[in-house]
Amino acid sequence: xxxxxxxxxxxxxxxxxxxxxxxxxxxxxxxxxxxxxxxxxxxxxxxxxxxxxxxxxxxxxxxxxxxxxxxxxxxxxxxxxxxxxxxxxxxxxxxxxxxxxxxxxxxxxxxxxxxxxxxxxxxxxxxxxxxxxxxxxxxxxxxxxxxxxxxxxxxxxxxxxxxxxxxxxxxxxxxxxxxxxxxxxxxxxxxxxxxxxxxxxxxxxxxxxxxxxxxxxxxxxxxxxxxxxxxxxxxxxxxxxxxxxxxxxxxxxxxxxxxxxxxxxxxxxxxxxxxxxxx
Amino acid sequence: xxxxxxxxxxxxxxxxxxxxxxxxxxxxxxxxxxxxxxxxxxxxxxxxxxxxxxxxxxxxxxxxxxxxxxxxxxxxxxxxxxxxxxxxxxxxxxxxxxxxxxxxxxxxxxxxxxxxxxxxxxxxxxxxxxxxxxxxxxxxxxxxxxxxxxxxxxxxxxxxxxxxxxxxxxxxxxxxxxxxxxxxxxxxxxxxxxxxxxxxxxxxxxxxxxxxxxxxxxxxxxxxxxxxxxxxxxxxxxxxxxxxxxxxxxxxxxxxxxxxxxxxxxxxxxxxxxxxxxxxxxxxxxxxxxxx
Amino acid sequence: xxxxxxxxxxxxxxxxxxxxxxxxxxxxxxxxxxxxxxxxxxxxxxxxxxxxxxxxxxxxxxxxxxxxxxxxxxxxxxxxxxxxxxxxxxxxxxxxxxxxxxxxxxxxxxxxxxxxxxxxxxxxxxxxxxxxxxxxxxxxxxxxxxxxxxxxxxxxxxxxxxxxxxxxxxxxxxxxxxxxxxxxxxxxxxxxxxxxxxxxxxxxxxxxxxxxxxxxxxxxxxxxxxxxxxxxxxxxxxxxxxxxxxxxxxxxxxxxxxxxxxxxxxxxxxxxxxxxxxxxxxxxxxxxxxxxxxxxxxxxxxxxxxxxxxxxxxxxxxxxxxxxxxxxxxxxxxxxxxxxxxxxxxxxxxxxxxxxxxxxxxxxxxxxxxxxxxxxxxxxxx
Lengths: 279, 292, 382
Hints:
The complex is a heterotrimer. Chain A contains 13 helices and no strands. Chain A is mainly α. In chain A, helix 8 runs antiparallel to helix 9 and helix 10 runs antiparallel to helix 13. Chain B folds into two domains: about 30 residues, no CATH class; about 250 residues, MetI-like (MetI-like fold, Orthogonal Bundle), CATH 1.10.3720.10. In chain B, strand 1 and strand 2 form a beta hairpin. The radius of gyration of chain B is 24 Å and the shape is flat. The model of chain B has no long low-confidence stretch (mean pLDDT about 85). In chain C, helix 6 packs across helix 14. Chain C contains 15 helices and eleven strands. Chain C is about 40% helix and about 15% strand. Chain C is globular. At the B-C interface, helix 13 of B face helix 1, helix 2, helix 8, helix 14 and helix 15 of C.
């Protein structure tokens, strides 16, 4: 086979692979959204689900009747945004310290941080709840934000990126009389923007989708995040919400995440184009 | 004493920057985890005060078939999940990284979609897809002449939907991580290798993999933690009995559904121990083969 | 201005447990709607108020046995909200089509026979009923259905595990096994769209289940409207008692200073006995296809509203059928604080049996063994 054919075969395989992956990625979500527009009573099993006979918004309307959507939306948004902002700040600070400062105990502490990555916080759920109670934070959105203001994974990831910041820039800034915090603010943060942006988008999505902790800490329904509200919809003995409505709920929950992600993507693209990333 | 204060003063900014994390960790992670260890030696139903019973919970664990099932299941999820996610993520990342890829932005965005979706929501969808009579998966199998599989109705196959959902949802995240790592590898390395006559496979094994070393290590650790934390997937896609229950789900059920907080705490302790052990092993392996 | 918090069922018990755990008495709900298991747990911990004094003077105004499942040691710990019977829902059109007389289903032997006839005459297309691959089989077929009617026992009066050797258990679960082995039960996931579609296609002919099922059918079925009828649950000929009712209650949390207790009791009383208001509320619920249940106050039940025919049941009055279904009840299984956990253990064995991985005898033996291992002796509240 000559080089030309090999190359085109390769391109073909590449695109085929990518399209198949995209199909698997999009299909379940598309399916879910399609069903949410179908009327109750229309078949949603097997291949039937893909055909909408009479599209309807009734499921969404019903959803708005069943749960306080705007309230939940606000709760979810608040938790996600503030949570992400705080975690970005504290993790980048610590990541920078581990990357660029030489201080006694640095390696040991860093190994310690990495070690803690392996203890999942869920294990301490019950004692944590009692603690939250004592702090008066149960039923407060802050109970979802404060414990995770700095995460080991975040520190690890951001430190990795910051290792690549050239020392000379930092040294010359110090010589110029810039304060340590000023260096962080004016030099490190701009250089680390791509890493911060990608970490921010991941974190915000994870917080938005968070289910276990809001379920545990939030006790009054007007404090529920959207995810918890929607997950309480499905069937239990007292409430027989039709699946179409439930899926309308889950579709609704996903939309902001998608929009946010696309937004972050665009932001990252712009940055790359502007040449803020070093080679 | 004096040298320590001097050192603290000299490096005060470094310590200052790290302290928020350390304080938060102490209060919100260390203390609760230690409390859990304490509770694991008690019997407690949440309404009456805890009662010390020593090792009884752990003794019960060894005779508990649900515990064995849960560990076996989670172990399976970990192995299959790691292999599945790493190969897929690597493959997709490499594909997305090829030069002059058309529709690159579309592919990147579309393949990231599964991560954005909440596992609780997608669990419901997957449950319908894997339904034994009319689920799409079986319909497609039947279309190709195969026999329908009782996925969630049999202990033998119930693990498959859980692992599929796990891989489906997490691969995009790791793809992104690996892709960002690939972007950082300078083209010069590849060009030099080409000049030396290296094949695609050789370039992959000798340049890409080593340079991605730290990132891959990070991925392995993260997948391990995520796998042992599986909850939503096995909760929504539950099979007969404990055929596909994860360890964390068993812990949650014991503690918050059956009000056996002592036993649940004991399960939690075992979970942490297993995680630490597995991570330590990975650490040691990494130490020998590379640098953190 | 204090607000009154209301919670339901398991979520409610969990909330109270967590709040008690954290010393958060202020945050506990004031009123909580519970079933017997929840009540037993909370009474044991001293978290509910004794309502005997409120109940005794008005007991005669309510249906018989309204607080039977909330009475412990002769004290009444809750006020009744609903008492719903076990019923037999069947699709009359299917029975007519295959020329089978529904009346034969007044006994379980007849029920089995009806299933056989259905299978034969429809060439295996129509199933007598459903079986769930998850926890609902034990819950609806077992604990709330066959077990009480067979006078089966999980625990004896001292809390020892007796399910393995109990004659009633063998009768109840043995019967279920017969139905399943003869291929009369359609295996599916309860409350799922595929199941509702199968029902609408006429694949499932009957439901031996609590009255609550009415709401689910009305909300999710579209093609078989008007074809359904209701009758009393079948009985085991050798035992003779009918279905066991499921009761829900209003319980008042012992918070030391429960806000507006008298007011709440008055509101409860009004809701139960004010015929006009109650009926209006129910009519509204029906209009939006919402849940409601028969009143427990005798006075209200007498009103013709509660004999009204229903379109979904082809002219039969579901409300009247529900009231009639309360006749000749079986006593419910004894409830202990360990029941949540016990149900999980028992259901796991049933699920494996449904999956075809063990026989019913093995399942029962496993239940005995596992219950003894994990719970030992149940703490019976005396």
